[in-house]
Amino acid sequence: MPRDPLVEVRDLSVRFVNRDIDLTVVDDVSFRLDAGEVLCFLGESGSGKTVTMRALLRLLPPHARIGGSIRLAGHDVTAMSERQLEAVRGPVGAMIFQEPMTALDPVFTIGTQIAETIVAHEAVSWAQARARALELLEMVQIPSAARRLDAYPHELSGGLRQRAMIALALSCKPALLLADEPTTALDATVQIQILLLIRSLQKELGMATIFVTHDIGVACEVADRIAVMYAGRFVETGPVADIVASPAHPYTAGLLRSTVSASTRGERLASIPGGPPDLTDMPPGCAFGPRCVSHGAACDAGVPPLIPFAGGRASRCLLTKEVVHAGQGGGSVSREAHM
Amino acid sequence: MSAAAERISLAPAAVKRRRTGGFWHRAARHVMRDKVALVCAIVLLAIALSAIFAPWIAPADPYKTSMLRCLLPPLSPKYLLGTDELGRDMLTRLLYGGRVSLSMGIAPVILATIVGGALGVTAGYFGRHINMAIMRVVNVFYAFPSVLLAVAMAGVLGSGIVNSLISLTLVFIPPIARVAESVTTQVRNQDYVEAARATGASAGRIIVQHVLANVMGPIVTYASSLVSIAIIISSGLSFLGLGAAPPLADWGLMLNTLRQAIYVAPVNAVLPGVMIFAASVSFNLLSDSLRSAMDVRA
User: Fold this and answer.
1) B194/A contact by beta carbon, under 8 A
2) Residue A249 lies in a domain
3) Quick one: DSSP state of residue A305?
4) Overall number of domains in chain A
5) pLDDT of B59-78, one tens digit each?
6) Does B6 touch chain A (CB under 8 A)?
């Protein structure tokens, strides 16, 4: 290995602890990410994808307990003080939020908010910061950017607000961009614009990007690699094209079968029976076991390990070796596909 | 002077201003459109200006007594609003009384806003033990009816303007702290605070910039609604002899001393009450209008 990867996470676990309950919401998560790569966390609500991402910047509520190690550009995030973290948040890793409505401060103009962030991190004058803010707004393709610099968030449409949010996240030239379902709150037509924008900015600036989504179409659009999450664990990781072509884990296969595409018109949409497990009452073995079509006795013996196999892929299923090339489901996945 | 050249150079700024407008500009415009609020603002301005310039515009000496001219009815020659029970000019004393009453309405509210706001924002932002410690104490004080608390405080501290200022401040700290705390708790959980943390803002900067800017509106509008109550309570303290001491001109005190004359010269006796009423109602209606004017999101 010539140099350290930008992000290296080993055995990450996140527990939410209070007086009555000790809940493990993320468990046994390990991954690495190089500069310029796009990784997508795919999973349904409550699968731990957002928590995993926020753990990278330690943006978690005070009752969260992080285990394992997180290295971001050489910084050991788990060991840093709150004050040291301030230097990491922004220049090293920045985040785009799901709701552009609430993630921008309503009482300040867009330009002020971006300039404030730049001034806080770099030794530049207010005028220089304003000029940079204008460049950023132009970079995220906000029309008549000079005028929008003095607009309050409520004067912008949802799509423009999300662009402003992206400009704010990019204001400190982060090496790692974290995007938490950045298109979920937007119209379908605006969604694709924002996705393409993030993708092109990511390429242009050479940023590593982690994308959180529950939309497999979004994942296909932006990601190099996917990590499918289920009940707080990675169940399958690998390059996006390979996973879509031949999912190794029954859960991923189920997800792909339940997507909408032109060829399934008029048919009843396939779904995975049952619901995700209660985190307070997890099954003894494979978390997906109770809903799995290929469920066997061995599955309940213990949590299966993430089994690596050809093509840089891995799957947390005991049947992994047998199903690799079965190539079921999938096919064309449309952009609007929702799971 | 080339008008065209000037227009070109000013164009971007002009466009910008018309589009967004300053915060105070917008608030002022809103109040201007609200007729009731406008009238209240004018009444208050008149009272305030006449109080400030009382020494220059008052027709007589507020302390010059004369037994011969006591309790003259309003519209008497030389005494536009008549005289009080010691023959002092009512108009003069009402103008001077505005100085005490208005300052006693505004000063304790400003002090309480600073102290209570700081307590509430601290409690709301840091939460947990700090919140518990601050809000428990605040709630104990809040449990007392405000007038009772003010009377008790003034009673303990002794009478006098400064002491009634202190007791009024203490009365208003709990409600303001409670409002500040609840607004801060809401703001703290907003995504933009989280977003500020995600861009590496320190706790101090988040409080000063994002939290204060967002809680200021609700706290100030709430505090402005307390001014009218402060005027009434301070007048009440004076009336009870716990605030301003004679011969100082204060509306509450004047109400008390003229009380005995209510059957002899009812109009004179009622005048200080009218002033208290006008000032407090104006403050109240104006603060209502400010509440909607200062809501940026509306």
Assistant:
1) yes
2) no
3) P
4) 1
5) 888 888 888 888 888 888 88
6) no
